[in-house]
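Sequence in, structure out.
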Amino acid sequence: MQPNEVKALLESRIDGCDFHIQGEGCNFQVVAVGEAFDGLSPVKRQQLVYQALSDEIASGALHAISIKTYTPAQWESAPENAR
């Protein structure tokens, strides 16, 4: 899979989030920013993203996924946003 394919899958399955994807093959780093994460524990945030990709993980199309999630307010001071 390509990063743009992973991004398209996530955008179609989780509303109101922006996704920043890096990686190749079956190993990806996902940074997700959205109101959907407001009020959720870190574990629930990760589960939301994993659930959105569960079919691809089960099939082996995706293997290793690193996930970081932020609300828009948290994203303002996130290290990944210091570009």
